[in-house]
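A protein record pairs a chain with a discrete description of its three-dimensional fold. The shape at a given residue is found from the number at the same position. Here is what such a record looks like in full:
>
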Amino acid sequence: MPMLPPDDDEAVPGYLRALGLPGAIDLHVHFLPDRVLHKVWRYFDGAEQQLGVAWPITYRWAQPARLAHLRSLGVLRFPALVYPHKPGMARWLNDWALDFAAVTPDCLPSATFFPEPDAVDYLTDALRRGAVVVKSHLQVGGYDPRDPLLDGVWALLAAHRVPVVCHCGRGPQEGAFTGVGPITEVLARHPGLRLVVAHLGMPDYADFLDLARRYEHVYLDTTMAFTDFTERVSPFPPELVPVLGALADRIVLGSDFPNIPYPYAHQLAVLHRLALGPDWLRAVLHDNAARLLADVADG
């Protein structure tokens, strides 16, 4: 009997076991200070006016309930991705994220940055404190990744082989420095950078898949891609599915939990329905991220 995709969250642990996995590693999860998270939720509450589509938050729960649910799904490791939208935020967000990870053993220590004079200093400190994942949000932050203030940041992250989950695509709302152009210039200067393109680079899927073919350390996360919600606004071209298969070692699971307008299981189900096979699913749901993280630990 062929393995079926999970049809609800309760089915996810059994689905992962059927694949022969101990669980999943999700590299695109958000835990934030409550006052910041509530501002994010208010933004999504207004998505119909801002983006033209309603975006109800499925997991609009208190933090303990969100943590318990991730664990019940079989998510083994996840970061608490924080991101600033102005100068002076990144340092205290890093302190919060690292403190959160210190008391949450399955949470990957993570950090963020903004183009400001002390960015290298506070990011160096975050790496000393164990950060193994970094978040860059070009759309929300509104900054140019080519800013000279960030050249030392990219160099530092490349040297330590720390994966950077970067929202550099133009979806769901274009920013001044989103799209493949600016981040490609960064990679030209820092080809060793472990760049994880969030949302598969939506809506410019072809451009970002090509970027991964050109740079051996570029990965793409699956966050929200292929879901019924996203297919209505930024459909993935069917002719590119074989490229995902060819890049089997460079695709990693991302979900955007808890800020998603559907159940977590739906993300796994739509990946299953790509019909790229169990080996591909094992790589995407666990093995590729495990290898990326081990590379940091060995560094």
In short: The radius of gyration is 18 Å. The chain has 14 helices and nine strands.
